[in-house]
Amino acid sequence: MHKITLLIHCEDQPNIIASVTNFMATNKGNIVYIDQHVDREQNIFFMRLECEFKSDAFSIEKFRNIFKEVLVEKFQLKWKMYAADKKPRMALFVSKYDHCLYDILGRYNSGELFLEIPFILSNHAHLKSIADSFNIPFYHVPVTKDTKYEAEREQLKLLESYTIDFVVLARYMQIVSNLLIDKYPNKIINIHHSFLPAFVGAKPYHSAYKRGVKIIGATSHYITEELDAGPIIEQDVTHVSHSHSINDLISKGRDLEKIVLSNAIKLHANRKVMVFNNKTVIFS
Amino acid sequence: MHKITLLIHCEDQPNIIASVTNFMATNKGNIVYIDQHVDREQNIFFMRLECEFKSDAFSIEKFRNIFKEVLVEKFQLKWKMYAADKKPRMALFVSKYDHCLYDILGRYNSGELFLEIPFILSNHAHLKSIADSFNIPFYHVPVTKDTKYEAEREQLKLLESYTIDFVVLARYMQIVSNLLIDKYPNKIINIHHSFLPAFVGAKPYHSAYKRGVKIIGATSHYITEELDAGPIIEQDVTHVSHSHSINDLISKGRDLEKIVLSNAIKLHANRKVMVFNNKTVIFS
Amino acid sequence: MHKITLLIHCEDQPNIIASVTNFMATNKGNIVYIDQHVDREQNIFFMRLECEFKSDAFSIEKFRNIFKEVLVEKFQLKWKMYAADKKPRMALFVSKYDHCLYDILGRYNSGELFLEIPFILSNHAHLKSIADSFNIPFYHVPVTKDTKYEAEREQLKLLESYTIDFVVLARYMQIVSNLLIDKYPNKIINIHHSFLPAFVGAKPYHSAYKRGVKIIGATSHYITEELDAGPIIEQDVTHVSHSHSINDLISKGRDLEKIVLSNAIKLHANRKVMVFNNKTVIFS
Amino acid sequence: MHKITLLIHCEDQPNIIASVTNFMATNKGNIVYIDQHVDREQNIFFMRLECEFKSDAFSIEKFRNIFKEVLVEKFQLKWKMYAADKKPRMALFVSKYDHCLYDILGRYNSGELFLEIPFILSNHAHLKSIADSFNIPFYHVPVTKDTKYEAEREQLKLLESYTIDFVVLARYMQIVSNLLIDKYPNKIINIHHSFLPAFVGAKPYHSAYKRGVKIIGATSHYITEELDAGPIIEQDVTHVSHSHSINDLISKGRDLEKIVLSNAIKLHANRKVMVFNNKTVIFS
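ok -> structure tokens follow
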């Protein structure tokens, strides 16, 4: 049994759903999941579809070609087709904070995450022992103002040599430049410790404390050139009060960060996220 | 332009999605919404679909017949097809509490609800002036132990004479018998003031207080023969503490009841709820 | 039985709690509620206390004088003392939206709110019939660019002639000037339809839609000179997705606005809010 | 500087707050935190108080004696007095699930928890390597029907020899008998994977799935003789839908379990929980 996951978007137009589902049937596929969304403001159609093929002769490469010939040009589709059983490969970038790292590795170990983690990278050596205890290669790539370009070149080489599909910044605390963003567009996931667009930039818990908000949040988003302004994947919040110090906010926020980031990773790894015009469509 | 909403469920089987979407295309329909769910435990397939037809000659009665001939027998479908622009007609049963009534009528007035409210019925006269101020007919049908059967016969006559599609018990505080349930299966929506299945029956806030729970809830569900055990449509909760008295729980609970019931009404009125084996599938 | 509510704040210093509680005991008061908070960043002590006096001879005016003599100067207290059974008087300012108005009046009618509403004021006539149906005087005071000053003078006269304690802007949609703010500092409560400090100013739901946030919110705060930047009393949020249109956000947001504003009103009316340096301390 | 935390409860009576605060002042203590609650149904007064003493000569043993002489008998107080800087000692009981264990140890390592973990105990050997990697002694005490009594005797011996203050069952999956409960009343914290009192007993996620609830929860409570019926410390919930399988519920539930249990541990370790008549008062 072969199974594919298909993501498409295009200008909205009549018969698009019927054409795609009919195409699958004609090619002996059985659709087991279908969901769609139309952005009426921008007139864009989005679809996510899972389809099973029983034939032993099925080849995803061949099927991609047929799909391209029959449908892509006709409807001017933007599309991605995945072998559903192929786990994406995720690189994990960390700095000194360990709470997101522990959370992700705990889930990874328990089989909760549909992905592979070929390596962990950090600009500091602090968390190496955690990587070791989970038997995952750890690369220490220091970053200073002067060595930033070289450091990113080294990162890029690692990403390529490990054939990484997407990158997760698990409180990496460094601004990532276009050198990486351009190579991995909408494939670098960050966790920001505020409810974006409130409190962009550094020290959001301090700003939240100062403003006297009654709720704090965390936001996972794809990195784009503009700081903390990329497409939002997942957000969550928790109530706070005047009685919470900045340290309390930081501590409560850690729980948000862990869960929001892990949820974003799951959505991305399961190919449930589409991006258009700096916004996400989430087929969950 | 004609638009239909189609709900189907049947045993899960290959090609069901392609067959239905293909059928719509063949009949010159353009699918504008599709969502589906497979209950893997019970092997049941559920689908909700909206389809537009441009032809002036389109008739939903004829289309129903063609659909029946071509697909219903073949796949052994259970199905419902609605003209999407036809508002369902809802009867509102109340008792003495007014918070859900005000909330529903406020939304109704503002155009937020896709439905018509031909009448309000109560076993008490207390809320008549509210019905009057919204210009909705009000029927006072007292219920005592001895007159319960006659009262429900009268209710039934009203429901039929007004061609009511579904009934909402907005804190109606009376147990509804099979006389009504059998005529309106999965069409009588209740709001229960607890997080079901916790605290079934009378005085759930008192029970919650006694147990010392840290969260209280409200549940909207379809009425079935067994008390508070019907299919759940919507639930929500709020945090409480030791400092809340029973009256505080009741007051906080009112806000939950209003919002949970209104959300359930919207889901039902927009034909987004399917029921199977005492559980709901919600296409929201 | 007489009961007072006392709110104090001052620089943090030793023995402040014991001094106040001892003072109450000496004056034959029985403390039935006490809560306190120390802002360690600013070194400010806050306290809320309820105290009962059995003597028929008790007079709050006399007690205020004794309190002032004995404690206020010694600890340099800022303080407010209320007769606990005296309901505050609240003016309600509205515009064309009715959801907050219905919500507040429904609660008011049911006895849920410890306050009096002597009048409702609007810059439009649209909601007069609602005020009428609840038997509350309604004043229509139109506001244009040119007449703004005169309109606010008229508002001020009404507030004074009705001896209003605090003002609630229930989606009033007008910027209130210093003429009113200075007379009612931290006594004018607004509801802003976003999760402040995100989306300050006009059309926050449109901005939220454009940014693609996964959570929307509402914020109730005291009006200050800077727009949407006053002390936050209460906030709440709800999850949204790509499938929600701007109208969906507006509709879901209305439920937040109603509940957040009513909660803020309750906290203020029950004298549970203290303000210091543009932040609130909430003794709930 | 010495600091104590005092928890008291007694029948509600006049002047109790003033008497205690006055006692502290007389003994040269400066109260830095005070909170109180009156259960009006049962007429019980609860108080939590933190007090600092500057004198080098201060001795908590002596102070306990004075407190007993002056106040305990007079007001018939039930009371506990702690040296605020003395960390409680917590034993961790686990079985095969590791998510709560990782979560607790991650927090422990980062300094977030005010407690000591002298040892981890399990009826299985599976999680020994995790205990090892955090350098905490691990005891494997197998439990079978026939050896249960001996096993609990061994557990008791370990608890005593390590002078344990409280026990946390982090998904321990065994019913604890009165042998332990009687020695550690309201000192054994369990995490139950449902929103109690819904779904008591085994396999709550399966029951939740079968009932078709739209929200699942987790509850942390003190163990009492009756299964899952002890005083509730903390609860939280998350939304689910028809699309979630039992495994999805289990996976989403793990995140609830971790956070609810950790919050309960923090409240207990910081002496913020009081228990009376099978309910908790939480001074948070």
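The interface with chain C takes residues 37, 39-41, 195-199, 211-215, 217, 231-237, 241-243, 245, 278-282 of chain A (CB under 8 Å).
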